[in-house]
Design goal:
- The protein is an alpha/beta fold.
- The protein has helices spanning 9-47, 66-76, 78-82, 95-107, 120-129, 141-146, 149-158, 181-187, 195-205, 224-236, 245-260, 273-281, 293-298, 344-355, 357-366, 375-380, 386-397, 409-424, 430-444; strands at residues 55-61, 84-90, 115-119, 160-161, 164-165, 168-173, 176-179, 213-215, 285-290, 313-315, 328-329, 331-337, 400-401.
- The chain is 51% helix and 13% strand.
- A five-stranded mixed β-sheet has the order 2-1-3-12-6, sandwiched between helices. A four-stranded mixed β-sheet has the order 8-9-7-10. The chain has a two-stranded antiparallel ribbon with strand order 4-5.
- β4 (160-161) and β5 form a beta hairpin.
- α2 (66-76) packs across α15.
- The protein is globular.
């Protein structure tokens, strides 16, 4: 028999209220828990320190410059000062492959590096293509004032487009006029100072039977011949890419040196710079135009038995019709920033650091890859160096003109080399060489 339970109305309502309340809380539990968790998370986040993204920048250099770059960054403490880690990326082996590499990356809105150390030819190609960041706002007046007048003129032509600067150079080199002072002293003749005097050197030094020539150069096609054409045409007072009267006069002069005066070895058209240097060290050349790396070659361990200072004396180049100011020109390498750099802020910071007067002066103490005619650099460079003395000599003499330029430089130089070589090897006339050059350059726009 069951026992009857008496439940008052008050007790019933109390029990029913508790049941309803319990059901309601159970139904709301997920939402309440979610909101509570969110509140706790936000509070914790507010109290916890922010996660700092590592700062880094990638700089592309040639393999020859890798160690110098590492030494410069270590010696100047860039990472310690800024907290920015620097990764050094090696460039590809040719200008063409580097251009293709970056073009592909920029089209994908990316870049294999943030800052690049690059030469005249790539500067022209990259700036024309719109791959580079304008640098005007990143270069201080102090830096501009540190440049020599010739460096400023060069920068306006080779490192800028439409008034925007895309590169600041750190390496600035010119061809020097090396000569055998011992031979000149023995012959009792003075170093030639004009085009006409150079012509007379064939009679003094050239001995074809023994393979000795007054002068020689590396003039093989593939940018070697173009360098010489630009050098001679600048001495004439012009730009070879204009294919004007100065260029014609220059071709006539080169032809005369080869075949009439017999001062310049015609075999130069088949030689590169290494072969040219080899002939000089083999006592086959009395004087020559050559880039400064020859000075290191001549003083290297392999040539200790041959070397003395009188064999590699340096004079100013001969003055052509264009006057002393166009006796030679300089070419350079410098820093620029890729516009698709994923580390743009860090890239700008590194660029400003590298181009500052203080760091430029410290850089030349690391190596001559950082030598230029900047006032701070020449003051800090080893004063007993033959190269520093030579650069100072050429700078003080005002012998430097601006390297002849063309907006499509690589394509244009190929045209000049092909047409000039055909004339200088007697395949076509001077008139035909000029016409072909003019017509083909006109197609480049």
């Amino acid at each position: 028999m069951s026992k009857k339970t008496n439940l008052s109305r008050r007790d019933f309502l109390k029990a029913a209220g508790l049941a309803v309340a319990g059901g309601t809380l159970a139904a709301c539990a997920p939402k309440v828990a979610e909101e509570a968790t969110k509140a706790v998370t936000e509070a914790a986040a507010a109290e916890a320190p922010a996660v700092i993204k590592p700062r880094k920048v990638r700089v592309a250099v040639g393999g020859w410059a890798e160690q110098n770059m590492k030494d410069l960054l270590a010696g100047t403490g860039f990472t310690k000062q800024t907290g920015i880690d620097v990764e050094i990326v090696l460039r590809t082996d040719t200008k063409e492959t580097e251009l293709a590499r970056l073009a592909s990356a920029v089209q994908s809105d990316d870049s294999p590096y943030d800052v690049i150390d690059f030469e005249d030819e790539l500067t022209t190609s990259f700036s024309q293509a719109g791959y580079m960041v304008p640098l005007n706002d990143l270069i201080s007046q102090e830096v501009w004032d540190d440049l020599s007048p010739a460096m400023k003129d060069y920068t306006d032509v080779w490192s800028a487009k439409d008034g925007e600067v895309f590169r600041m150079i750190h390496n600035w080199e010119m061809p020097y006029w090396f000569y055998r002072k011992d031979w000149f002293d023995e012959k009792g003749v003075a170093i030639p100072t004009t085009w006409d005097e150079v012509k007379t050197m064939g009679e003094v030094f050239t001995d074809e039977a023994n393979g000795v020539w007054a002068t020689e150069d590396g003039l093989i096609k593939g940018a070697f011949l173009n360098v010489y054409l630009a050098w001679i045409t600048l001495q004439a007072g012009g730009n070879p890419f204009d294919v004007g009267p100065e260029y014609k006069e220059s071709l006539e002069y080169i032809y005369d040196l080869m075949y009439t005066s017999k001062a310049l070895n015609p075999a130069s058209l088949q030689k590169d710079y290494n072969q040219q240097n080899g002939d000089y060290i083999a006592d086959k050349v009395a004087f020559m135009r050559q880039w400064p790396f020859f000075g290191d070659v001549a003083r290297g361990d392999d040539n200790k038995g041959w070397f003395n200072e009188d064999k590699v004396a340096i004079a100013l180049p001969p003055v052509g019709p264009g006057g002393r100011g166009g006796s030679t020109y300089a070419a350079g390498w410098g820093w620029g920033i890729i516009k698709t750099s994923p580390n743009l802020a860090e890239a700008k910071e590194l660029f400003q650091f590298l181009v500052s007067n203080e760091v430029a002066a410290k850089a030349v103490e690391v190596g001559f890859w950082f030598l230029s005619a900047r006032k701070s650099v020449l003051a800090a460079a080893p004063q007993d160096s033959w190269l520093v003395k030579a650069m100072q000599q050429y700078t003080d003499a005002g012998a430097l003109g601006v390297r002849p330029h063309h907006p499509q430089f690589v394509e244009a130089l190929t045209v000049l080399e092909d047409t000039a070589a055909a004339y200088l090897t007697n395949q076509i006339s001077l008139e035909e060489s000029m016409k072909q050059a003019k017509d083909q350059l006109d197609t480049l726009g």
